[in-house]
Amino acid sequence: MMGRDEFVAKRSARWQELETLLVDKELHRLPPVTISRIAALYRAICADLMRARSLGVGSDITGHLDVLAGRAHNVLYAPRPYRLRAIWELVVFGFPRAFRANWRFNALAGALFYLPLLVGLLGALNSSEFAEGILPRGMLQGMAEAYSKGFTDGRATGADAAMAGFYVHNNVGIAFRCFATGILLGFGSMFFLVYNGLVIGTVLGHVIHVGHGANILTFICGHGPFELNAIVISGAAGLQMGYALVDSRGESRVASLRRAAPDLFAQISGAAIMLLIAALIEGFWSPSSLPPVVKWVFAAVMSVVVLLYLLLVGRRPAPKRKAAVKQRRHDAGDAPLSSRGGPPSARGSLPPGSVPPGSMPPPSFRTPERTS
User: Fold this and answer.
1) Which burial class, exposed, middle or buried, applies to 55 when counting CB atoms under 10 A from its CB (0-12, 13-18, 19+)?
2) Segment among 76-80, 117-121, 153-157, 286-290 with least mean pLDDT
3) At what angle are helices 32-55 and 59-76 packed, to 10 degrees?
4) What is the pLDDT of residues 145-183, one digit of tens each?
5) Cα separation of 319 and 70, whole Å?
């Protein structure tokens, strides 16, 4: 049986090394080789703790190892810190790239939304009976009255902020239903895309039919490029989620959803930002007393901006980002195998008693593997 002194002598060097590395708790700021080294030492400390308990070397040693393993666990498995730069990276890279990568779902969602919108628009333009077959007569009359006077005098003082809040709540609710119901194998997203497109087209067609078309079109032209396209993108994300459940590529459905999660998150976050912009425009700009020609020029500019953003932005990584990636790869390539956590046969320089990366820690420290 190994004695207490021999046990501590063989392993104390890596205990001290891990304590030194844990001084900096911001793991995401450390180089990759250091993170790999901390992970390897954590696994070794877990093995030492299990061995110390079985040998009965003393509560002071097991207590010290227990605390050390807990500290390492908390550093390695802590959630990623909130970074303002992450929002910038989402807007400039993540969202437009995810949109283009899943263009088939966005094209399908666009067809499911805009074709019913066109049907509702043309049907309500030609027949009041058609519009009343889609929506209650009272709702149609209320919409017509709301746009009967136009916005030459603007909106009442103090009402803009309240209406902006209402638009945020309403628009986010529509987009959320288009996305979340995609869990029903995509059929829920299909339904809400068709339904909302048909309702919006019917309202628009009916208001134009009763003679207030200029008012409603001037009102919606500014925020429409953001709001309508955000609804389509939300529905496309729902369709992608449903497809990931149908075609799991040989994985479990949970694993398939996990694989699609980064693109889903990027698209939903981007759509939420677009809806926020739409709500601000709808609450403060659209009902203003500015001349209609100014609103239409603004709408044209915003339409071009949204189109160019989704199609062109983020195609190339920023130079600083490329340089950082290249430097990390260079550092990882120059690091010794013992620091990079290479295969067991290549890590002969680890202190005696180390365990290979694939070994599992004791039950008291086992946690599910985190995913990005």
Assistant:
1) middle
2) 153-157
3) 150
4) 888 887 776 665 556 666 677 777 888 888 999 999 999
5) 39
Q: Where are the domains of the chain?
A: 4-81+322-365, 85-312
d(Cα 300, Cα 309) in Å, to the nearest integer? 14
Phi, psi at 139, each rounded to 5° = -65, -40
Both tokens of residue 106? 């966005």
pLDDT, one tens digit per residue, over 40-60 is 999 999 998 998 888 888 888
Q: Report d(CA 167, CA 281) in Å as an integer.
A: 10
Structure tokens at 175: 């987009």
Whole-angstrom Cα distance, residue 143 to residue 128? 14
CB neighbours of 124 closer than 8 A, spacing ≥ 6?
130, 131, 134, 201, 202, 203, 204, 205, 206, 208, 209
- In angstroms, the CA 131 to CA 354 distance is 74
Residue type (1 letter), 157: T
Give the three-state DSSP class for 287: coil
